[in-house]
Amino acid sequence: MKLVVVSAGLSAPSSSRILADRLTQAVTSQVAGADVGVDVDVTVVELRDLAVEIAHNLVTGFPGPALREALDAVAGADGLIAVSPVFSASYSGLFKSFFDVLDKDALTGKPVLVGATGGTPRHSLVLEHAMRPLFAYLRAVVVPTAVYAASQDWGAEGLEQRVERAGGELARLMTGLAAARPAPVEWGDDVIPFERQLAALRVE
After folding, report:
1. pLDDT (tens digit, 9 = 90+) per residue, 110-129?
2. 3-state percent breakdown (helix, strand, coil) of the chain, nearest 5
3. Element (H, E) at 52
4. Which segments of 76-202 does DSSP mark as H helices, in order?
5. Which of 14, 46, 135, 171 is most buried, judged by most C-beta within 10 A?
6. What is the pTM for the complete model shown?
């Protein structure tokens, strides 16, 4: 089973790559824990290394060999993790440009987990007003939990729980496992039928 991780961080290392690695670990560990008999083959695409080829593709319409390999990996993936830093209240231009040169049908029906990093929590809604609509337009299946990490989130309570929840959602979609459902309610013999409850309310 193939998991492709797209990181748009510009530095090395970057907070976007660190978040992407944590999400990847959450997915792979939960697939392994599900005992479905499959291994996860992870491919990481660092967009900073493809910036020049992406720009050339936008101008010429033809991808270079490294970009072609990355595009093919995304198209052939069983699941995708996509993480971008936040610039000017949205995903980065490099992040958007990569998905601009991707075939418009490559993500149709594909499970996607989105994440973003930024310097302040005030940009957390970028996941909902920018990233989720982008992948909805590409007809991907975006997992319910998106993960945003501000500078103060690293090492703080809450981030790891969000990472694990999002990773579990992507793992279940990738493996075809049904989401965990609450156990059915066990009704006792002392339950009063609804008709009798209504009858007791009638005014004589």
Report:
1. 999 999 999 888 889 999 99
2. 45, 20, 35
3. helix 51-60
4. 93-101, 126, 132-137, 159-175, 194-201
5. 171
6. 0.84
61-to-10, 74, 85, 102 alpha-carbon distances in Å: 24, 18, 26, 11
Q: Give the separation between CA 154 and CA 152, rounded to whole angstroms.
A: 6
Beta strands in the chain (DSSP E): 2-7, 41-46, 79-87, 90-91, 111-118, 141-142, 147-150
Q: How far apart are CA 29 and CA 171, in angstroms?
A: 9
Is the Cβ–Cβ distance between 86 and 116 less than 8 Å?
yes
Q: Give the bridge partners for 81, in sequence order.
A: 5, 113
Q: What is the mean pLDDT of the chain?
A: 89
pLDDT below 70 — which residues of the chain? 177-191, 193-194, 197-198, 202-204
